[in-house]
Each structure stands twice: as C-alpha cells, then as structure tokens.
Write a structure and sequence with these properties.
Number of helices: 5
Oligomer: single chain
Structural class: mainly alpha
Strand content: under 5%
Shape: elongated
Number of strands: 2
Mean pLDDT: 87
Distance between the termini: 81 Å
C-alpha cells in the first residue's frame, strides 16, 4: 500500500465509525459531548454519548480501529487491516520527527557498543557467611 492508500483506509475507518476529535482525545469512561461549542444547553440535555473507543491509549486505539474482526484488549498483536511495514513507512514519512528518531537510534547503538567494549568485571571475593551449626558446640538448656 502507498502512504495515500494507508491514509485513505484510516480515514474510512474513522468516518465509518463516526469518530470525532473528542473520541480521539477523550477517555472512554467519560461521555463525549456531540456539541462542545454549545455552552447554553445544559450537559444533561446535550445527548452525551459514550466514547467510540474502548481503549485508553492511542496505540491501543489504533489497534482497535484497524484490527481485523472483533477487537479484544487482551490481544497484544491482533491482525491489522494494513501491513505493519506499510504502517511503519507511513509513520516514517508523515508522522515522525526523523532527526529525533535518528538521534535516539544512534544513541542506542552507541550505548550498545560502549557496553560491548567494557572489560568484564573481575569477580569480587566475598566473605563466606555460611554457618555450619553442626560444628558449634551447644551446652546447657536450649
């Protein structure tokens, strides 16, 4: 899939489920106000509905949005409607600050090689703290 096709699938899912910005940023346990700009109507009369998402976190919400079949929060790796390689490319091309990612990757690589180059730690001699009670004479009442 191209990046445009990935975006089209995402928009189709968002529109098909009638997801609003308030669903995207709101918590699932609180209601979503369909008309937040209306300050006059009392909240009890606004027709507050539940959030379209069951999940709390953005990544889990994307799994919920893109999973094939019924979503379950217990499945950490559900099959998705878009291949992970295409999602990764879309993320890289449209969503991420590349310089920050490259810096983080290079820092991780540097740390890895620094640890590989570190000389092995010498074994430290430690005091023997074992006690053999059979060798301790016990006299008198216990």
């Amino acid at each position: 899939m191209t990046d445009d096709q990935v975006e089209q699938v995402l928009w189709k899912e968002i529109r098909g489920r009638d997801i609003t910005i308030h669903d995207m940023i709101g918590l699932p346990c609180y209601g979503v106000d369909p008309h937040p700009e209306d300050d006059i109507t009392p909240r009890s009369e606004k027709g507050i509905r539940s959030n379209r998402f069951e999940s709390f976190m953005g990544g889990d919400r994307m799994k919920e949005l893109l999973c094939v079949g019924e979503y379950t929060e217990w499945d950490d790796d559900p099959p998705l409607k878009i291949p992970l390689q295409d999602l990764f490319r879309f993320w890289w091309n449209r969503c991420v600050d590349r310089y920050a990612v490259v810096d983080a990757i290079l820092e991780d690589i540097f740390s890895y090689f620094t640890e590989q180059m570190r000389p092995p730690e010498k074994e430290k001699k430690s005091m023997d703290v074992r006690v053999d009670f059979d060798q301790i004479p016990v006299s008198g009442p216990v």
